[in-house]
Write a structure and sequence with these properties.
Keywords: Bacterial flagellum, c-di-GMP, Cell projection, Cilium, Flagellum, Nucleotide-binding. This protein is mainly β and 226 residues long. The protein contains 3 helices and 14 strands. The chain is elongated.
């Protein structure tokens, strides 16, 4: 898949994308061997600040021998999907600095110097900082307050501070989202939590709207005037 946007140097936004990587996250590695280019799957182990990345050596029982492609000083391209944040394929190039076989089969690499990204979503998404409150769809009890980080005609992503909500809500929870429009009026629309993720500071909920796209589009235009 073509990479549509390339950045030289790491911005704070790029660093946030890298720090969104979690142990166990699936990775796609592109490596070069004497017989050609290979694409294999593995998983992310962790990172040491901005000094190095640690990646699990791919299963050679599944992908075949890779020792002629993954070795110290050889380069490789790493790709992963940042679906819960911005709906992007993120790619970067690193150099292998060390390959361990004990206590586990791990690859240590340099820290990337630049990122490339390709948007996955075809629909328009607006980046926002609109305050919102979530209520139970049936009980109408207030569940939490948060911020809408991005908004489209079919759904949104809401971030809620872990300081105000200790336990993350489960997917398939039906909610009502209350927001205040440009005129100071409170509006509510219904939705279903489709995915729930967390980092050190916040819980993030991907919510699919129950209203028609036309109704949400009208609301979106009113909210973006804020």
């Amino acid at each position: 898949m073509a990479i549509l946007r390339e950045k030289v140097g790491l911005s704070n936004k790029d660093l946030k994308k890298l720090r969104s990587m979690r142990p166990g996250m699936p990775l796609d590695l592109q490596v070069k061997s004497p017989t050609g280019i290979k694409r294999v799957k593995t998983e992310f182990i962790g990172m040491d600040g901005t000094r190095c990345l640690i990646i699990k050596f791919p299963d050679e029982g599944k992908w075949g021998s890779l020792r002629d492609a993954i070795y110290t000083d050889n380069s490789m391209v790493v790709r992963y999907i940042l679906e819960d944040e911005t709906g992007e394929i993120v790619a970067f190039k690193v150099k292998v600095t060390l390959v361990l076989s004990k206590p586990g089969n791990y690859i240590f690499t340099t820290f990337p110097l630049s990122l490339q990204s390709h948007g996955l979503r075809a629909e328009e998404r607006s980046q926002t900082q609109v305050p919102a409150a979530l209520y139970g769809a049936e009980s109408e009890a207030k569940l939490c307050e948060g911020v809408i980080h991005d908004l489209s005609n079919s759904g949104c992503r809401i971030g809620v501070s872990r300081g105000t909500q200790k336990n993350r809500m489960a997917p398939k929870t039906h909610v009502k989202i209350h927001v205040t429009n440009f005129e100071g009026e409170t509006e509510a629309f219904s939705g279903t939590i489709m995915n729930a993720k967390s980092d050190e500071l916040s819980h993030y909920y991907g919510i699919k709207f129950a209203e028609s796209e036309a109704a949400v589009e009208a609301l979106r235009k009113r909210l973006l005037l804020v």
